[in-house]
Design goal:
By secondary structure, this protein is of the alpha/beta class. It has 16 helices and 21 strands. Helix 5 packs antiparallel against helix 16, helix 13 packs across helix 15 and helix 14 packs antiparallel against helix 15.
């Protein structure tokens, strides 16, 4: 998997060389997040918080529902981590606090200030789940560094990694002496780390070529890109493609022919179809913004909907754990199956609140003659919500509860739609409350 990095300092997206020298900055974090999310999770790092110079959290929070983000930088308590998870963060990255000895705080290195902070990691792991916790094992010349890479903890990288592994689902290894330099990753160090631990590893620092990404992927590690991505030295679509496991391809005659299976789902998770992709089809998907496949029967590139117009607009790709199968989320422009059915697995779209809102939205945009929904203005729909809520509370039998609840859901969704609120935003709020 390839992870794009959005580092934030003073309210700007930045890239720093060696964590200090400003190389570039941008103010389009939302656009970057939307683009990067097509390829994988995004690492959102609050550099100011990491260095104890403030916080960019108000800028970061909206990104957590717009993209699948892992968040790091200055996260020092389990309560902070849990709050970020409730706001939509997929994973939490912790660094300096994981290596500060709680028994010798402020004592200085000579008096043992640094050690793996087991109590902190235990609390984090219990609070948000080990699978959500990433420990940043940032190292310069094989030694852990903390405090924005300014302080050596004098802890060996490999031994520290082994100690923190029981509490973390993943390690983020940054080769600090090469970070931001685009001089190449220390692949031998990556290999040693991979041999030392069994958890997932993401590698960063100095990566500058597709060949390096291929090497890292073959070691079973993910890669996090920053400088090489922002300067255009590496194209994210190419990086995503080369990180996949094409070696499990099929064979035609005597020639290897790499194809990966693709499962296509709607944004609300309904499976529409399956197909196959090769490197050409994957590349064309990113270029066109519509999902393309390799047709096995015709042995050529095929864009779904190229004749019917029922294209699949790309939202995001995700690779499975072995990187040999792809899940693509796409917005269908119409029915998907060649038979005319909505999907290859069902004649009709499964009814959901998202589907209901789509219907309501269409009624307002293009009101059909006699459409009741189109007549519902703000005042009337609020009256109906109050009326249906009262009738639901008064319902006696099971069938009455079902009937009245359906009415209330319908009118509530109309009210939300008129107010410009999506079902997903309401579900996000429920998710936040669940994870608090």
């Amino acid at each position: 998997m390839v992870i794009a990095s959005i580092d934030i300092q003073n309210g700007k997206v930045v890239q720093l060389k060696q964590g200090e020298e400003l190389v570039l900055q941008r103010d389009n974090a939302d656009e970057l997040a939307a683009d990067f999310d097509r390829f994988g999770e995004i690492a959102v790092i609050d550099l100011d918080a990491a260095m104890g110079k403030g916080s960019n959290m108000e800028m970061i929070k909206p990104l957590l529902r717009k993209a699948e983000c892992r968040v790091g930088g200055g996260i020092r308590t389990a309560a902070q981590a849990k709050e970020l998870v409730s706001l939509g963060a997929r994973k939490i990255i912790v660094g300096s606090n994981a290596f500060r000895n709680p028994e010798k705080k402020g004592a200085g290195k000579e008096n043992g200030e640094f050690a793996v902070n087991v109590s902190f990691l235990e609390e984090m792991s219990k609070k948000i789940g080990r699978e959500r916790l990433i420990v940043a094992v940032d190292a310069r010349n094989g030694e852990i560094v903390v405090d924005g890479w300014k302080t050596s903890a004098e802890l060996d990288l490999i031994e520290a990694a082994k100690t923190v592994e029981p509490y973390a689902g993943e390690l983020l290894f940054t080769c600090v002496e090469r970070e931001g330099t685009m001089t190449g990753i220390n692949i031998d160090q990556v290999r040693k780390l991979r041999e030392a631990v069994g958890c997932q590893i993401t590698v960063a620092g100095g990566v500058s070529t597709l060949e390096e990404i291929d090497q890292i992927a073959k070691l079973g590690c993910d890669v996090q890109l920053g400088m090489a991505l922002y300067t255009g030295k590496i194209n994210l679509a190419d990086a995503f493609s080369i990180s996949l496991n094409w070696n499990k391809g099929q064979v035609k005659g005597n020639e290897p022919f790499s194809l990966l299976p693709v499962i296509v789902q709607t944004p609300d998770g309904q499976v529409m179809m399956t197909g196959f992709t090769d490197k050409e089809a994957l590349s064309e998907t990113f270029k066109r913004g519509n999902v393309c496949f390799h047709s096995r029967t015709r042995n050529k590139l095929w864009m779904k909907g190229e004749n019917s117009g029922n294209v699949l607009k790309l939202v995001r790709f995700r690779a499975d754990c072995d990187r040999d199968a792809l899940l693509v989320t796409a917005q269908p422009a119409g029915s998907v199956c060649h038979t005319g059915a909505w999907s290859c697995f069902s004649n009709n779209r499964n009814y959901s609140l998202e589907f209901l809102q789509d219907i309501i939205t269409e009624r307002f945009k293009n009101p059909a003659p006699g459409s009741y929904t189109a007549t519902l203005d703000d005042e009337l729909v609020r009256e109906k919500v109050q009326e249906e809520a009262k009738e639901l509370c008064e319902a006696k039998s099971r069938d009455e509860v079902i009937w009245e609840a359906a009415d209330l859901l319908y009118f509530s969704t109309v009210l939300m739609t008129r107010a410009g609120v999506t079902v997903q935003e309401v579900l996000n709020e429920l998710d936040r409350r669940h994870k608090k």
